[in-house]
Design goal:
heterodimer, A: 162 residues, 7-stranded antiparallel beta sheet, 7 strands, 35% helix, B: 129 residues, alpha/beta, 5 helices
């Protein structure tokens, strides 16, 4: 099958991701969020992961992964309320993932209208890992907001625009 | 100004809270803000309540925002009530699709309270008087 090719260079995708994360956090959470060096989770801890699928001009997914405590902090910053329950943290992370994926692809002309996003799916638990088929396109970046961190992974391959 | 009522349709309770919070932060004080977690639930709410403005997500499971707009129109519920779509999708094609489906406004996530105000105030002119 012939795959759709894009003018945008994959190297710029990583920069676009940094800008998308910064925009979403600055606008919706009111805090800055910047890339940091990824050195692995320091302790075994409960985490929450949100996944948004991409179809069309790019087939793949966007995954946002945080500790449970950071998920609660994200919910607090998004809603302005500190008394959120665990369900709210899951919901917040799903929305965050959706906004990061949407803002990221919106900044790449070939993907803006040619790539569609799925509703988010959220996974929680201890020490879970995501495995997927090797894909030609893979970005994994870590970001810090206040004392909290989040990992964002984008992976997939070029497809056909919808 | 008479009391204004709004309906927020989104499968995410967090996003419903964010929209309500943004309306308050923008100085748009609705006397009642109803919530629905899906297009189906929103149609049910509108069978029993009158509202002045509807905010709806597009990307929702079961019934997406565009289908909600179509069914709203087909059932002649809330005639003349402006619907503002809220979504991460922002391409020209997508905006056209939303407008063709009958939406009167469009807010791209992420958004600031001022952006919400800019989109909503013109729609309230003539209603709030």
């Amino acid at each position: 099958m012939k795959l759709y090719t894009m003018q945008a260079k994959p190297e710029s995708f990583e920069q676009r991701l940094d800008l998308a994360v910064e925009e979403v956090f600055g606008t919706m959470l009111g805090v800055s969020c910047a890339p940091v060096e990824a050195v692995g989770w320091t302790t075994r801890q409960e985490t929450i992961g949100a996944i948004v699928g991409m179809a069309g001009a790019m087939r793949g997914s966007c995954v946002v992964h945080v500790s449970r405590a950071s998920g609660m902090r994200i919910a607090e910053l998004l809603t302005g309320k500190a008394d959120n329950d665990q369900g709210m943290a899951q919901d917040a992370l799903g929305e965050l993932c959706n906004m990061i994926a949407g803002t990221w692809k919106g900044g790449i002309p070939e993907l803006a209208s040619g790539c569609m996003l799925s509703p988010p799916v959220v996974i929680e638990g201890y020490d879970f890992r995501l495995h997927s088929q090797p894909s030609p396109f893979h970005i994994q970046s870590r970001y810090q907001f206040g004392p909290d961190e989040l990992d964002v992974t984008l992976h997939g391959e070029m497809g056909k625009p919808v | 100004m008479r009391d204004l009522k709004a309906l927020i349709v989104d499968d995410s309770s967090v996003m419903r809270k964010i929209v309500e919070r943004s309306l308050r932060a923008a100085g748009l004080n609705f006397s009642d803000v109803f919530e629905a977690g899906s297009g189906v639930e929103a149609l049910e709410v509108l069978r029993g309540k009158n509202v002045d403005l509807i905010f709806s997500d597009i990307n929702m499971p079961h019934m997406d925002g565009l289908e909600f707009l179509r069914q709203l129109k087909a059932a002649n519920l809330a005639p003349g009530v402006p619907v503002v779509m809220i979504t991460t999708e922002s391409s020209g094609d997508h905006v056209m699709q939303v407008v063709e489906a009958g939406a009167k406004g469009y807010i791209r996530k992420p958004f600031t309270p001022d952006q919400v105000k800019d989109r909503v105030l013109p729609l309230l002119e003539g209603i709030a008087g």
